[in-house]
Write a structure and sequence with these properties.
alpha/beta; 5-stranded mixed sheet; 11 helices
């Protein structure tokens, strides 16, 4: 998300600048390959009962993280369409981030290919292994924050696994899995800044958020309700979260608001910035899919159940590998509660 006033001395990285450049260059050659072959989710119809259940859930939305379908390992039309892709096209097509450190990023030290790595990427490989029998049967597509929903609706991807918060506005447009991670919005600012958190110290300050993010919608709503100072400038929005860190480093903004899980990773990239105050929301990441892809939603929910039970190579192992260094060794605060599912009427 942000800028570049100072060069961050990230271990083995050469700073955020190096990361951003590598991501941009690799993206040209490795990502955004045009989608061809069978349509994503073609021929998938929703039962009237299921549709009625979902529509009612949207109207009564208070806990969006609980509004998902129960797990199932059965193949339906959506999954079968994925399996019917031929040859090199027989892959799961997934929208991801490529510049969120430890979540979905290209590590320039991993070799010439600079393969995608991170917590979200581990989950994608697990889903591909379950559906197609091969963890590497994935076509990754770099998706900006504000393009996550359009990419799903347009059929450019089968799903998005990109630190995407489940909320009431989004469940009107896409279907979500059960939560796979818990976080909350937090403020990131220079260590020397007088900003203390999400409070009156943000008055007359410039804040950067990613376009289409829950951070921006929260700031906008809070400012209208008087919970955020009217003099706080929230007009700076960027396509990707890392761009905000660059803006912050360049001195173009005074603070960043984003998910605490992402902010912690950004603080790890730049020792001159830090999290300010506590998280002021509670949010859950989910895998986003097309509204009518019921079988895929159920399958992903079953995969998540198994993933959390797998102590050797599942959720906990991925957390230990990618996130414990920035979020702490105790993963319980980041682990979502036991999932709850919609009941068909």
């Amino acid at each position: 998300m942000r800028a570049r006033r100072l060069r961050a001395s990230l271990k083995g990285w050469g700073g955020v600048a190096t990361m951003a450049v590598v991501c941009a260059l690799v993206a040209v050659f490795a990502l955004c390959v045009p989608l061809s072959g069978p349509g994503v989710g073609d021929g998938r119809a929703v039962t009237q009962a299921s549709q009625a259940t979902i529509e009612k859930a949207e109207e009564d939305c208070e806990a969006p993280e609980k509004q998902t379908l129960s797990p199932s390992s059965a193949d339906g039309d959506t999954i079968q369409a994925i399996k019917d892709r031929e040859g090199e096209k027989r892959k799961l097509i997934v929208g991801v981030d490529q510049n969120s450190y430890r979540w979905g990023y290209r590590n320039p030290n991993s070799g010439k290919t600079a393969e995608l790595e991170g917590f979200d990427i581990d989950l994608v490989h697990r889903i591909a292994e379950d559906i197609l029998g091969d963890p590497d049967a994935v076509q990754f597509k770099a998706i900006p924050t504000d393009q996550r929903i359009p990419a799903i609706q347009d059929g450019r991807v089968d799903m998005v696994v990109r630190t995407m918060t489940i909320n009431c506005a989004r469940i009107a447009d896409v279907a979500f899995s059960a939560p796979y991670f818990k976080t909350g919005q937090q403020v990131l600012a220079p260590k020397s800044s007088p900003v203390k958190g999400y409070d009156d110290t943000l008055a007359n300050r410039r804040i950067c958020t990613a376009a289409g993010s829950t951070a921006y919608s929260t700031l906008e709503a809070d400012q209208k309700d008087g919970k955020l100072p009217a003099t706080t400038d929230i007009s700076t929005t960027v396509p990707n979260q890392l761009d905000c860190l660059v803006r912050l480093q360049l001195g173009e903004v005074d603070a960043v608001v984003t998910d605490g899980a992402l902010a912690a990773s950004q603080a790890a990239q730049d020792p001159t910035v830090q999290l300010k105050g506590d998280a002021f929301t509670a949010e859950y990441y989910g895998v986003a899919m097309k509204k009518d892809a019921d079988d895929l939603v159920r399958r992903v929910n079953q995969i998540l159940v198994d993933y959390r039970k797998d102590t050797a190579n599942g959720w906990q192992a991925s957390y230990d590998k990618w996130l414990s260094a920035t979020l702490g060794k105790d993963a319980k605060k980041s682990e979502p509660p036991a999932p709850q599912y919609l009941r068909s009427t």
